[in-house]
Amino acid sequence: MRQSALPASNLLQPRLPQVVEQLLKRLGIAARVVHETPDSSQPRVQAALLEDAVGTLLVLFPHDQLLDLNRLKAVTGRTLAAAGAARLQQLIGPQRLSALPGLPALTGVPCLYDERLLHGQTLLLDSGRPHVLLEIDTETYRGLLDQASAARFGIPLRRLRLNLKRPPDDPMEAVQGFTARRIRQRLERRVEIPPLQKTAQKILELREHAHLCADDITDLVETDPALAAQVVSWAGLAFGAEDPAPQRILSVEDAIVRVLGFDLVLNLSLGLSRDKPAESPELQEIMTPYWEQAIYTATLMEGLCRAIPRPQRPEPGLAYLAGLLHNFGYLILAHIFPPHFRLLSQHLQVNPHVPHGLVEHHLLGITREQIGAWLMEHWKMPEELAVALLHQDAPQYRDRHAVYANLIYLAANLLRNRGIGSGPQEAIPQALLERLELSRAKAEEALDRVLAAETALRMLLAQP
């Protein structure tokens, strides 16, 4: 016989969202409240809300699997996509839930589940409150699915492999390999990424200034990832053409002041801005969070860099650039490969628990980090940038120029742990901090300084 909802033995445990607590009580379900632990191997339910012209479908599958929408189509005969933000907000917004719990009775929509969900003795479910989970006996949970349909459609994550060391010309699996090669071939042709809309407007305004100086254009370029990358690339090409053994370009300021001059940069930037096509809805949706994360990461990278003892300190200008461009491959996909980007976006929405690199490699045979790193090489950018972009998700990376890749990993995770940026939160390895000669306290202090300046950053991000 089912017991009443929640055990009252541990008064220190957080309360569940009221709507979840009431539902469990009404159903007579015994559930234990547990804290989320990153290294837990206990089976966990992942919930995704999908829709098509037929209607809405709640899909439940194991947390250690990837939901492939093409496989789901083969099972259901429906072309399902992630439910729109308005539909999801309609279900979880009024209850102030942070995530959709895997409880079919809560949504009231048809449900499909992967039959491998029910293989263990107990299951963990999102409670709708951050880092708080429900633990339910599998047989009890089976009873909650008595009106749902069962099938087998998830892809176990253990089958997915990410090989960043694969030489460019090695054969890959058919579909992904063909897609990856096509992406690389397209990038070998000239690629120009227009500045952000607000950057383009400021460029036009600067052109009218009678007393324009290098600092004005430098400050502007340093807040636009696409423009910053192209300016440094132009400088490298110009420097290399004049000097067979050129001095290295170490920052946007280097590129503008030592090589190009602000008049040339302004004119080239105007050229990129002119006849800029209207941004697609997909681009409009991603640009603000993309830009925000780039600025925060770059600013924190520079702060972390300056906290490293001077003898081991990397170049602050390159550290800033690495942070600004750390997600550049994602921007390339959005601008240059819209169909691939739409496919990827749909899968990332329904698989927030899966590292984006695994999703990208599964669908495209190449990741945003590989795209960004390859473009850095193709544009003759500093080698440090290509290394940083390629290995930013590998805290164990220790080879040439590892400090820049390690700093991106550290900065991104520090920010995510404070709610800035997307992706799973991870414990920062002590070994990485020791290699950087940074204490955890120093790293947190650098983050605190960035967040203390958050008002100024927000004003920058909000400028029209």
TrEMBL record:
> Matching InterPro entries, A to Z?
HDOD, RNase_Y/CdgJ, UCP036888_HDGYP-like, YbaK/aa-tRNA-synt-asso_dom_sf, YbaK/aa-tRNA-synth-assoc-dom
The protein's superkingdom reads Bacteria
**Database matches in PROSITE patterns:** HDOD (PS51833)
Extract the Gene3D superfamilies matched here.
Answer: Hypothetical protein af1432, YbaK/aminoacyl-tRNA synthetase-associated domain
Q: Name all HDOD domain ranges.
A: 193-395
Protein's name according to its UniProt entry: HDOD domain-containing protein
Species the sequence originates in: Azotobacter bryophylli
